[in-house]
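Support request, priority: normal
Reporter: lab tech (M.K.)
Component: structure prediction queue

Hi team, I submitted a job for TMM43 protein from Falcunculus frontatus yesterday, and the status page still shows it as pending. I've pasted the exact input below so you can check whether something in the sequence is tripping the parser. The sequence length should be 399 residues. Please let me know if I need to resubmit or if it's stuck on your end.
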Amino acid sequence: FQQFSDTGSRKEHVKITSEPKPGFLERLSETSGGMLIGLVTFLLAFYLLFTNEGRALRTAKSLDEGLSLVVPLDSIHSISQQNEGRLVHLAGALSTSKPLFDPSYGLSIQAVKLKRNVEMYQWVEYEDSKEYEENGEIKKETKYSYNTEWKSEVVNSRNFDREIGHKNPSAMAVESFTAVSPNVQVGSFVLSRGLVDKIDDFKQLSLSHLEDPHADVTRGGDYFYHSDNPRRPEVGDLRVSFFYAGLSGDEPHLGTADKVTVIARQRGDQLVPYHTKSGDVLEILYPGDLSVEEVFQKEHESNTMKTWALRAAGWLSMFVGISLMTRIFYTLVDWFPVVRDLVNIGLKAFALCVASSLSLLTIAVGWLFYRPLWALLLALLSVVPIVVARSRVPPKKQQ
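Reply from support: The job had stalled in the queue. We restarted it manually and it finished. Here are the results:
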């Protein structure tokens, strides 16, 4: 069953499908498949939590090693052989040998990176679904809505529920690309490819000082439009914008060259990765003029944020895995509404407590070889969720 409506430029229709309510054996079979997925997720959580602790401690140790060895350079314009092979710190303005060009639009800029971003005006499908039970059947009501938007990627309209009237071109006539300067320097030192990759603070380039490059291209604001009427674009029209990162020369409309701070190993006139005794690599670049202490403080903060993010991801994976593996108990009693709700609450509480305890215990094992005292404290802390859960069980049930 379908209903159609047209609200201005936004079109939508509703489709309702129905299927028989799955039987007990069918739901049990689906639950069994979920248990297998849950087991895999559960095991992956152990791997993620354990390896994350080793990575975090190894990174912290490498940063401490780097801070104790780094040598601040007195000048970025002279190369001292005494620092050959050592970890050095320097700060200065970026420079490149040649400007980056986009001849198709008559644009050039002295920068480390120049990105052309092409967007096409296309139909986009949105889907909103809800399920409900009626007359012993499971019905699914899905509302499909369509709107025209600028998109950087080609939207495949063949996957739409209703392609008629919402067809998009299969490709863009103009492609996006990113140009990178082959030679980037700070003073007399050439940056490695890894350091250049870290220069990614892109800013949109103003096109106000440029003319229309072709008769069929119109400039509007900071975009070049391939359109007969940019104010009323049609599906298939293009608009092009430009972004730059790492200004490496004085530009009349943009200002002076960007400054960066680098910590890396000196090899001749090149700055390359430094391999620590812990097995990590130090190859650091930050925008601005920062001291050695400020750089390593930022690196420690970044390491801490990454560690906690992965801990949270590991705990969530363990919680989801346990929930999926114990879902079969919910399926066995889902014919009885009151019992079903109680079992569901109990299973969630069980998954929460066990996931918290096992996560803390895994983290403790990860720290065992690095910080034994902290590992012992975490191991003791891992017992707390289970003790709390047992303390809430009535005495008769414990017996």
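The mean pLDDT is 85. The longest strand covers residues 111-134. Let us know if anything else looks off. Ticket resolved.
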